[in-house]
Design a protein that fits this description.
Largest sheet: 4 strands, mixed
Number of strands: 4
Helix content: 10-25%
Distance between the termini: 44 Å
Strand content: 15-25%
Oligomer: single chain
Strand order of the largest sheet: 1-2-3-4
Number of domains: 1
Shape: globular
Length: 99
Amino acid sequence: MKLEFVKINPVENMTVLVKTKINRENYAEVSRYLMEYGNVYCEQVGFIEGQHLQMMGGEFCGNASRSFAAYLAFQDEDFQKEKIMRLLVPDILKHYQFG
């Protein structure tokens, strides 16, 4: 299988975002392969599903979210203009207070 991906380094935390569409049941296997020291080597793997980032385990990852936001910005020809983007987070975050 040929994978198209980007490797992004937000605050010294290597993140790989997989652009190739694959079945979710294969996310764990693909993630383990990419995270290996002898391969691409990273700390987390996210899978791009359109405007949605899906982590291997369905968890929220702040660094992967930052990486995905940067990826989306640089895909946009007008990325220097102010934008409002909708962010969907896992239900677990509803139990925390921020700010």
